[in-house]
Amino acid sequence: MPDLAKAPDEALAVDTHGATAAVISKLKDRFQDRCATSPALRQQHGHTTTWLENQPPDAVVFAESTQEVADVVRLCAEHKVPVIPFGAGSSLEGHLNAPFGGISIDLSRMNAVLEVNDQDLDSRVQAGVTRKQLNSYIRDTGLFFPIDPGADATVGGMAATRASGTNAVRYGTMKDAVLGLTVVTADGRIIKTGGRARKSSAGYDLTRLYVGSEGTLGVITELTLRLHGQPEAISGGICTFPDIAAACNAVITTIQMGLPVARIELLDAMQIRACNTYSKLDLAETPTLFLEFHGSEAGVREQSETFSEIAGEFGGGPFKWATAAEDRTRLWAARHDAYWAGKTLNPEADIMVTDVCVPISRLADCVAETAEDIRTEGFLAPIVGHVGDGNFHVQILVNLDDAEERRRTEAFVGRLALRAIDMGGTCTGEHGVGQGKQKYMAHEHGEALDVMRSLKRALDPDNIMNPGKILPQS
Question: What is the mean pLDDT of residues 261-272?
Fold first, then answer.
């Protein structure tokens, strides 16, 4: 068993009892070609989407049922070999890395929609179902699943990282969308949390414990999800502003007035320039809000008109409506492609992406200070965000092979995280902690971090579930 107290590079080389080799041998006997050890596949199941070093697992098992997941976990628990759950591989903070080796359980083949209860507005699905797959499946029912992180992530991974996205300001995040879970615990038991009832006072809320646990407490294999009715009418469009502060202040006023906006996204001038190039748009290169309103025909018209008045108070406008579905789709596709668009600003650069979230009243302060920090450092770093709930992202284009440039970039990310925390916010609004944000956990949570460690020890005493994530080593 790798010594989990050692540094990751040391631990990878330590397997004194041959435990990992023994586990892999048994997994190959059981799963045949669904247990893979090829270097390319293992590397694919380490972290590949961000600046953190790729740390591949020792083997990958493609599970096809909850029972198979339980069998893998039970075997790993017996030999004290780490387990790393894998969905679509789209997470951004090193959640999928295997710093101590171990077995990656790929749940992408567990992609069945098990039931849809349209009268109760809920659905039970396997963890490997993606959000686009689910919405395609339920389209004819008049329902939709609103959590939209951009990437076509699996719903199991979305629950594990407590994902949100562009619709969160109206429909909430994964913690609001998950009614119940099936989870394989660290000792291989299969448990069910929550249920289909919309509320319960019975016992601890284990569902919320596992949502956001990033695979460190168990493997999510099935989910019961809250659905919503498709709105009668959708209106959306864009509104430009003279500067970032004006755009943020318009957002703050919109939320404080209780205007039921469904989506309200900020793209700074640099991001607009990138989107124009990548998505073939011709938008003015100035801070811009993308908005969408859901409701009745009269309701969305009234909401749009009210927002136009708010924007005018801050020098913004005009608000250009895009009522045709194809026009809205084109705008939101450009927003979802912001990561790839940013790459066009310097195709040779690496990308370091980070996010924070602050109380809505501090949004303008945090974004403005961050923009000034970017200007001072001379970075190419577009800002884009789900600003209706105080969450924004910075995408820094950097040469990671340049030690000084990397140091400056990591220092900038640290300043941003601490800035957000000191404003009453969090170091990550939706990307999660993984490996990348561990260093800020003590500053954000204080003594509560020790309570998290106690929970981890109680539920995973041998520290086999995605070790090296969320909790910094003390």
Answer: 96
Alpha carbon distances (Å) from 136 to 130, 144, 182: 10, 9, 23
CA distances (Å), 457 to each of 140, 211, 217, 465, in order?
A: 45, 18, 9, 11
Could you give the CA distance from residue 111 to residue 276 in angstroms, rounded to a whole number? 35
Structure token pair of residue 172:
């909430």
Alpha-carbon distance of 6 to 27, in angstroms, equals 26
C-alpha of 433 from chain center: 10
Strands 122-126 vs 113-117: parallel, antiparallel or unpaired: antiparallel
Q: Mean of the per-residue pLDDT values for the chain?
A: 93
* Beta strand extents in 197-305 (DSSP E only): 218-226, 228-229, 233-240, 261-267, 288-295
C-alpha to C-alpha distance for 298 and 417, rounded to whole angstroms = 41
Within its chain, how far is the Cα of 264 from the centroid?
18
193-203 tens-digit pLDDT: 999 999 999 99
Q: How far apart are CA 447 and CA 132, in angstroms?
A: 39
pLDDT digits (tens, 9 = 90+) for 2-58: 444 344 334 444 454 599 999 999 999 999 999 999 999 999 999 877 788 999 999
Contact 151, 139 (CB under 8 A): no
> Coil, strand, or helix at residue 319?
strand
C-alpha 238: how far from its chain's center?
A: 25
* Percentage, residues of the chain above pLDDT 90: 86
pTM: 0.92
DSSP helix/strand/coil, 385: strand
**109-115 CB contacts, 8 Å cutoff, 24+ apart:** 109/62, 109/63, 109/64, 110/63, 110/64, 110/65, 110/66, 110/156, 110/221, 111/154, 113/137, 113/138, 114/222
Nearest-angstrom CA–CA distance, 170 and 177:
12
Tens of pLDDT along 295-334? 999 999 899 999 999 999 999 989 888 767 888 888 899 9
Q: What is the CB neighbour count within 10 angstroms for residue 283? A: 19
Pairing of strands 391-398, 350-357: antiparallel
Compute the CA torsion angle 217, 220, 223, 225 (nearest 10 deg): 60
**225-237 mean pLDDT:** 93
